[in-house]
Amino acid sequence: MLSTSATTAETLERFYQDLRGYSASPLWLVQEEALVAEPKSKALPHLWRWRELQPQALRAGDLIGTADAERRVLMLLNPGLNRMATTNSMFAGLQIVMPGEAARAHRHTPAALRFIIDSQGGSTTVNGDRIPMFPGDLVLTPNWTWHDHANDTADPIIWLDGLDIPLVHLLEAVYYEPYPEDVQPVTQPTDSSLARYGAGSLRPVWETSGAAHSPLLHYPWTQTWAALQRLAPEVDGSPFDGVIMEYANPNTGGPVMPTIACHIQMLRPGESTKAHRHTAGAIYHVVQGRGRSIVNGHPLEWEDKDVFCVPGWNYHEHANASTTDPAVLFSFTEAPVLRALSLLREQPHPQGHQ
Ligand code: 1HN
Question: Which domain holds residue 269?
Answer without folding.
Answer: 46-198+214-348
